[in-house]
Input
Amino acid sequence: MIKKLSLNEKKKRARKIINKLKKLYPKTKSALNYSNDFELLAAVIMSAQCTDKMVNIVTDSLYKKYKSVEDFASANLNTFEKEIKSTGFYRNKAKNIINCANIIINDHNSKVPDKMEDLLRLPGIARKSANIIIYLTYGKTEGIAVDTHVKRLSKVLGLSNNTNPVKIEKDLIQILPKEEWMDFSFRLVDYGREFCKAKKHNHENCPLTKLIS
Output
C-alpha cells in the first residue's frame, strides 16, 4: 500500500517519474497510424476499448478507401460497420465517425476543430480523445489524456487515488509541469505495456515502483 502523499511530495515524486520515463522512452508518440487530422480522429474513436494494434490493422486498408473527411461523411453505414467490426462496439463507432465527418464538414470547414469545447460536442469524443487530437494535430496542450494505463498507474504510483478519469486528470495537472502533460501520458502508456501490465504481477521488477519504494 502506497502511503498518502502531500501535494509537494507528489510533485517531487512526479519529477522523479518523469525523469525515469524520459530515460526509458526518450522519444514517444501515439501508437496509432494516421496521415491527416480526420484519420487521427477516426482512429482515436476506434481505439476505445480496443488495442492500438488492432486499430492499425483495420485502418491499414480502411484509409486506402476513405482518404478524406468527405469520403467518411458519404460512407455507407452498413458497409462501414463491417469494415471496422474488428475494433468492437463497431455500430456506435461507425455511426459516430460518419456523424463526426458530416459535422466537421458543415460546421468546421472540413477541418477537425482545435478547441476542446468544439471537440467535446462531436459524437464519440470525450476529454481523453480530445486531448490527444489537439496535441497531435495542433501541438497544443489542453490537458492530460487519461486512458486505462494512465488511470491504473496513477494509482499504483501514488499520484492519484481517484478512479474517475476527469478527476485523475485534475490531480495530475496539479503535480505535472504543463510542458510534460501529454508526453507523460504517452510514456506512461508505453511503460504500462512493457513493464507494468494490467494483469496481476509482482511489481518488484517494475522500474518506477522500484524508484519510489
The chain is about 60% helix and 0% strand.
